[in-house]
Every structure is written in structure tokens, then in C-alpha cells.
Design a protein that fits this description.
Shape: globular
Structural class: alpha/beta
Order of helices and strands: HEHHHEHEHEHEHEEEHHEEHEHHHEH
CATH class of the largest domain: Alpha Beta
Number of strands: 12
CATH architecture of the largest domain: 3-Layer(aba) Sandwich
CATH topology of the largest domain: Aspartate Aminotransferase, domain 2
Largest sheet: 7 strands, mixed
CATH superfamily of the largest domain: Type I PLP-dependent aspartate aminotransferase-like (Major domain)
Distance between the termini: 35 Å
Bound molecules: pyridoxal-5'-phosphate
Radius of gyration: 22 Å
Strand order of the largest sheet: 2-8-7-6-5-3-4
Number of domains: 2
Length: 438
């Protein structure tokens, strides 16, 4: 449903949790929420309780403002030899430096800019396998990976370019490092385990996994999809055992369509996109300078005071989780505080989602990509959860702009809608859960 449709419905006053117009510096001047009749396409005019940050974060207005001169000032092609190009190139260099710093990646870090997290995951997996063909084609990955890893591996299996061992998580969604190591064969060239799971919030011990893999076989490359962790989890990649780490801009307030892959020096990759040789030959194409600068700025801002973020998000997450449990929500093991996945038995999640939306509360059923397609969660299925839990799951996810008022607004709205949506029918009835891929 569009913001316009939401605005057409009558509703009570809500606390401000996110209002793009009120964001400093971007768009029309800040002001109170405007009536629906005066809204035009563009930023949401009304405050909403946005609890879907795992799908995409609210824009970071300051980061966009920093990047703005690269749209209408230093708009040159970074490969051009003249001043406009040199200025753009300087913006890119600074963005890369900031991303490397946020990753704890060291001075000689290689940060290859991509068109997002999906592309970075593809580059990591396909790019690595292409350089290791003679050594082997076996991959170890978890069954709860994001589709950008899962489907890439499956595609490689289909074409005969890879064989994959899928590691099932436990009932809490946690991937056991020992099971990962046990799946290694003489043919293994890559291990790919995501850092923070995007549906359950489980934080996998990717550094422990990397060290265990390296102890067993130092030549195996270890990749982590860090899209839901970056900007929220303290990282020191230079000192750890990982070789490849994926990040995405729009999960931390940068625009959609910008991401990056961190590559440990010495890790060989083949490019997927060939052409002018940009990004050290690993990703040809004129760079998205505006996106990169905004990404660098958003990363610097997100990681400037991680201790304060942790303190705030721990309290907000605890408040949210406790409120959801009080309302009858059933969850599994707790992961990071910014992603909470609970089921309300007897509730169809898509009905609850839209009932909440009518009250200005935005949440998600499974992942954003699965929910619009009406798919049930491959993640909860891989955890071996009962159909009832899988078929009635809602994801609430917090971010840098979340507030206590926002969490309270969501809980109040949920308390109002639950009796009605429960009556609308028991969730999951007649639906077959997708089998676990492990
Ligand atoms: N990996 C994870 C864990 C994600 O949650 C997402 C997006 O939801 C991606 C990868 C894909 O990132 P992007 O949307 O930048 O392609």
C-alpha cells in the first residue's frame, strides 16, 4: 500500500518516529505533519512508526546532504582527467576510506563498490569460485542465508559450477561453527555464513567460524554477508579470519543501489562485470559517486559512537521484545536487539501487517523480498519450526532513527488490532511450509 493510501484513512495522532519532511536539509522545510490533501509524491508527509529497518533504513539526511555536491557540483566522471573528474575521484577515495575505517579493515584494505549487497554477494561467491576452479568447487553455506547467497549457490549448483553443503541452524536459528568445519571436504574452496540473519536477528560467530575453518584449511576463503550487521556491530576485519565481507548502503541510511565487498589483500577474485576496469578491474562501470559518498558518510556516522547506539538499541529492543511477549508473541532465541521475529498464533501476518499499516505502523512478515511474493520463510523452515510458528511470523526491526515512542506506538497499535486479526482466521491454515534447505 502506498503512503498516499495510508493517509486517506482516518487515524489517531501518532508520535513522530520517522518523518522525511522533518529530516534536516532534504526536501521542503521541516514542519508539522501535513494533511493528506496537500501531499504530493515524494517524502512521506505523515509521521509513521517505521519498524522495518531490516528491509531498508530511513534515509540519513546528513549523509545525503554531504553527498549532494557530487550530484550538482563535482558531478564529473571519476575517471576523467580534468578537475571535475578529479574532484569526483576524491569523493570516491574518501568514501572508500570511510567504509574501510567502519569495517576496521586496515590501511591496505580493498573495498570494491558495487550496486548493492546482492551484487557484492554474487561477486564474492562467483568471483571466488572462478579463480579456484582447478582446486575445487565445493561450498559450505548456511541454510538461512539471504536469497542473494542462497540463489547464487543454487544457480552454481544447477550449472555444475559448484556443489554446496547446506548447514542447518538449530531451533533458535544459530549456526554451529563445528558443523561448518565438519562439512569441509578436500574440494572445499569457500565457506559463506551470514553475520546477522535478516529475519531472526541471530548473530552468527563469523570470526570464530573463520578461525576454525582456517585452522582446518588455511586455503579456504571465508565470506560473511554483513549487510544486517554493518554500522551496528563493531568490526575489526583486518585482525580476524574473514576474507570477504559484504555490506549495503540502504540498510544504514544511504540510497539504494550502492554496496561494497571488502576483500582481504591476497584474496583472488574474478570480475563479474567487465569493461573499463574501474574498481581495480573487479567491477567495471562508471561509479555511483553520489551513492558512494552518501554510503561513506552514513557509515562514518553510524560507527562514530557505537557504544551509544548499543546502549540505546539494547534498551529499545528489550522494550519491544517484552511488549511483544506480553501480547502473546512467541519467538525463538534472541539475536541482535534490532531484529525481533515473533509469531502470534492464529494470526495471518499479512492481515496484521496491513491492519498495523492503517495505524501508521510499518512492519514486515518475512524478509522484504519474500513477503511481497507471499512466500513463507525458508529461514524459519530451516530452523525446523512448526507450521503454525512459520505461518504467523512478523518481523519488527529497529534502526538509528527508532525511538521509544515508536516502539510504544507499535505495541499499542498491535494490542488494538490483534483481537480483530485473530478473528480473521488462524494463520498458516492450508499452507505448506517450504522445506528446509539443509
Ligand atoms: N544480505 C542480507 C542479509 C540482506 O538483508 C539484504 C537485503 O535485504 C541483502 C543481502 C541484499 O542487499 P541489497 O538490497 O543491497 O541488494
Amino acid at each position: 500500500m502506498t503512503p498516499r493510501a495510508v493517509a486517506a484513512r482516518p487515524r489517531a495522532r501518532r508520535p513522530l518516529c520517522y518523518n522525511a519532511r522533518a529530516s534536516r536539509g532534504i526536501g521542503p522545510s521541516p514542519g508539522p505533519a501535513t494533511p493528506s490533501s496537500s501531499r504530493e509524491p515524494g517524502p512521506l508527509a505523515d509521521p509513521i512508526a517505521y519498524l522495518d529497518h531490516a528491509a531498508t533504513a530511513a534515509p540519513d539526511a546528513e549523509a545525503l546532504l554531504e553527498a549532494r555536491p557530487f550530484l550538482d557540483g563535482a558531478w564529473g566522471n571519476p575517471s576523467s582527467a580534468h578537475r571535475l573528474g578529479v574532484d569526483a575521484e576524491r569523493g570516491l577515495r574518501e568514501a572508500r576510506r570511510r567504509l574501510a575505517a567502519a569495517l576496521g579493515a586496515g590501511r591496505d584494505a580493498e573495498v570494491v563498490l558495487t550496486g548493492g549487497g546482492t551484487e557484492a554477494n554474487n561477486l564474492a561467491i562467483r568471483g571466488l569460485l572462478r579463480t579456484r576452479r582447478r582446486e575445487g568447487r565445493h561450498v559450505v553455506a548456511s541454510a538461512v542465508e539471504h536469497p542473494s547467497v542462497l540463489e547464487t549457490c543454487r544457480d552454481l549448483e544447477r550449472t555444475g559450477d559448484a556443489t554446496v553443503s547446506w548447514i542447518a541452524p538449530d531451533a533458535d536459528g544459530m549456526v554451529d561453527p563445528e558443523r561448518v568445519v565438519a562439512a569441509i571436504t578436500d574440494e572445499t574452496v569457500l565457506v559463506s555464513i551470514m553475520h546477522v540473519q535478516n529475519e531472526t536477528g541471530m548473530l552468527h560467530p563469523v570470526e570464530t567460524i573463520a578461525r576454525a575453518v582456517k585452522r582446518a584449511r588455511p586455503d579456504i576463503a571465508v565470506h560473511a554477508d554483513g549487510v544486517q550487521a554493518f554500522g551496528k556491530v563493531r568490526l575489526a576485519l583486518a585482525e580476524g579470519g574473514l576474507d570477504l565481507y559484504t555490506i549495503s548502503g540502504h540498510k544504514i541510511g544511504a540510497p539504494k543501489g550502492i554496496g561494497a565487498l571488502w576483500i582481504r589483500p591476497g584474496t583472488r577474485l574474478a570480475p563479474l562485470v567487465t569493461g573499463g576496469g574501474q574498481e581495480s578491474g573487479l567491477r567495471s562501470g562508471t561509479e555511483n559517486v553520489f551513492g558512494a559518498v552518501a554510503f561513506g558518510a552514513a557509515a562514518a556516522r553510524a560507527t562514530a559512537d557505537l557504544a551509544a547506539f548499543e546502549e540505546r538499541i539494547d534498551a529499545l529492543g528489550a522494550r519491544l521484545r517484552a511488549g511483544l511477549v506480553e501480547l502473546g508473541g512467541v519467538g525463538n532465541g534472541a539475536g541482535v536487539p534490532w531484529i525481533v521475529n515473533v509469531s502470534f498464533p492464529g494470526v495471518k501476518p499479512e492481515v496484521a501487517l496491513h491492519a498495523l499499516e492503517e495505524r501508521g505502523v510499518f512492519v514486515s512478515t518475512t524478509s522484504a523480498c519474500a513477503s511481497r511474493k507471499g512466500k513463507t520463510s525458508h529461514v524459519l523452515a530451516a530452523m525446523g519450526l512448526p507450521d503454525e510458528r512459520i505461518g504467523s511470523a512478523l518481523r519488527f526491526s529497529l534502526g538509528a532513527t527508532s525511538t521509544g515512542a515508536c516502539v510504544d506506538a507499535a505495541l499499542t497499535a498491535l494490542a488494538e488490532v490483534l483481537p480483530r486479526v485473530r478473528r480473521a482466521g488462524r494463520a498458516g491454515r492450508g499452507r505448506a511450509a517450504r522445506p528446509a534447505r539443509a
